[in-house]
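Task 17 of the worksheet. Students: predict the tertiary structure of the chain below and write it out as structure tokens. Keep your answer in the requested format; marks are given for formatting as well as content.
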Amino acid sequence: MGSGSIGGATTFQGHEMYLEAFRPDSANHEPNCLALEICVRDLPGTPTLCTLSVGWGGDGIPLTEGLDLLPAEVVFGPDALRLIDEALPRLECHFDRCLCDWEAAYPQSK
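Model answer:
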């Protein structure tokens, strides 16, 4: 779990918060991470909610389809906070389902 600034050397500057499951020793065809992400970018003077999702990372094939609950970017304010609040239960549920699918397909050695 973490957060941090992103895009310091680019025009896409902002801040992201994430919950990530990571397997550094994943095999080539297995995804190596799963993340629930919320990202706010700062267009000159206009903070904008730009990511509200669960997605897979690494070179593997995702075991479950990702979930993106942000149909369009939203200027950060009360509406964006409401969207986040309403989306969190679905994002958490999807993240948990992905973790179960990952463990079923690629059990960790005991």
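Marker's comment: The CA atoms of residues 14 and 41 lie 4 Å apart. The first strand starts at residue 2 and ends at 6.
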